Amino acid sequence: MNTNREPIHIVWFKRDLRLEDHEPLKKALEQNVRVLCLFVFEQLLLDDPHYSERHWDFIKESLRDMNAFLNPYNTKVLAINSDIISACNIISNSYQIKNVYSHQETGIQVTFDRDKAFKRYCKNNVISWQESIQNGVVRGLKTRELWFENWNKIMAEPLITFTAQTSNFLPLDAISELETQCQSANLETATDKPFQEGGTKTGNKYLLSFLNNRHKDYMFHISKPEKSRKSCSRLSPYIAWGNLSVRQVYQASKTAQVSSSYKKQLSAFRSRLRWQAHFIQKFEMEHIMEKVSVNKGYHKLKKSISEHYQMAWKTGQTGFPLVDASMRCLNQTGYINFRMRALLVSFFTHILWQPWQDASKHLSRQFLDFEPGIHYPQLQMQAGETGINNLRIYNPIKNSLEHDPDGIFIKHWVPELRDLDLPFVHEPYLMTTLDQQFNNFQLGIDYPFPIVDLKSKRKRASETLWNMKKNPKVKNESMRILKKHTIDNRSNLLKNDD
């Protein structure tokens, strides 16, 4: 081992793939020691069923975007296939790691276990690991007292500007040498994917187009499966993977609101940024939500698993057009709006009567913006297993008629219904034999019959879950959850901040 190793600091990037408004990077650059930017494609996540290629491609695009920005500083992010401890061991052969800087990560159980192991590693190797909170979410928080006020203060703090000199970083030739010692990651991706492209540069384009124009219809179209694709911000993957900080987005919307004619739309948008942080904080404090219902009273709720039902749902072949269109759209593009996400979960857990855990991994693999802190609380809320939220059993036909009345979204994603008369686009099973002959269309062949009877299944779910809400254990757990997560001045979370 080289006994004259140069001391360095490492900035370990995870779900914070940006250079601006990045506290760990700022702290590292303030020291009189050269900095190595590091991203590790960890096998524990590459193998995890929550993730899919679309996520890794988004990350690779984000890293390429960061490297383009860093190139004038004669450096780049060292991106390797490894685990964080093995990576540090290899780097330690050439350099003395003084400090590791990173953001706290609200991830899944395997990343939390990894963090605990890395903390022990740093202690044993006399390495200081300094973590910063991200987006106002705090690890280890015991109470939500003053949480909202503290979150508001963080959002109001000045943005952290990236300022550096070439001499602050480990240079490209040194990083190339490290790449020969590690398994360097290939950052190439296909160019013809139907997904949003990763990176801060692209994220800023979406942000500017939303604030300059698209926000005017934000609340009017937020529930519409087709129109929301343009009028919603579409910033969720850039926030989930940290291409943009919530503070950057929050402050940009406040600035844009000054001259906007649609101030209420931007206020409503910011309220959802607050709710996002609220749910992530809730997941951070209730880690069992990854596996079981947060309300322990629902642990005894048992549902019979049907592989047939689940496969029909995953592939968009349930016989309910809006459900199928939503799933096909999600599978292909990585995005659907919030209401259609709720519809998919409600249909799976209530109408098909399947456990929400069986929906979790398929949805997380499809959501380009998969964020664990949003994913699990929303799954359980829509499944009606929190005990504190109103029970919502979405009617796919009612939602279809209300939010896609002309069938534009359905016709796009379920093209086999495109040439039918509009009533049959929403309810193809209403076609008589004569209707089918006239349309040269055969139910069960061109498009499936509904796989369940909607009316009876909704009735069963409603009766079962409403009865469970009366259970003493469910009630006691509901009180515990409310006490733990009720935010001071909760109304402030909901109101506009004009």
UniProtKB/TrEMBL annotation:
Pfam families: DNA_photolyase (PF00875), FAD_binding_7 (PF03441). Keywords: Chromophore, FAD, Flavoprotein. Residues 7-137 form the Photolyase/cryptochrome alpha/beta domain. Its cofactor is FAD; (6R)-5,10-methylene-5,6,7,8-tetrahydrofolate. PANTHER family: CRYPTOCHROME, CRYPTOCHROME CIRCADIAN CLOCK 5 ISOFORM X1. Belongs to the DNA photolyase family. This is Deoxyribodipyrimidine photo-lyase/cryptochrome family protein. It comes from Bizionia hallyeonensis.
